[in-house]
Design goal:
By secondary structure, the protein is α/β, with parallel strands linked by helices. Helices cover about 45% and strands about 20% of the residues. Helix 1 runs parallel beside helix 2.
């Protein structure tokens, strides 16, 4: 039975995973997304993760916290995370509500996120250590 269009897609792009959230997720869907993403980091030995939220017009406190936790889990699994595509209205609302992404790098769009991971990844390979934040 088809359950409809995918709410999230996780694609492998070389050493990176690109996770696009296509629509607002409820709490249980966010947790499932988190588990799937962290699983795939190990399966594909990914060095970086991009979480693309460009399709979202709202990001509540649970979603923001879950994204921060997901990035920390990814870091513990050896992958650097960046969040791409936070819409202007979402950024405004997050600031007004006192929500943030913690120390997670953010990028304007997917292109910027890939560029960032490429730069950080080169530094890690060259120095054999994690980049400074």
């Amino acid at each position: 039975m088809d359950s409809g269009p995918a709410l999230v897609s996780i694609l492998r792009q070389g050493p990176y995973l690109i996770a696009s959230i296509h629509t607002a997720l409820d709490d249980s869907q966010l947790i499932k997304f988190q588990q799937d993403l962290v699983d795939q980091i190990g399966r594909y030995r990914s060095r970086g993760v991009i979480i693309d939220v460009a399709a979202l017009d709202v990001l509540d406190s649970f979603a923001a916290r879950t994204l921060r936790n997901t990035a920390e889990m990814a870091r513990l699994r050896g992958a650097i995370t960046t969040i791409a595509g936070i819409q202007p209205d979402v950024a405004f609302a997050m600031v007004e509500l006192g929500l943030d992404t913690g120390s997670i790098h953010t990028a304007l769009d997917l292109e910027g996120a890939l560029e960032y991971l490429g730069e950080v990844d080169v530094d890690v390979d060259r120095d054999h250590r994690r980049p400074r934040r």
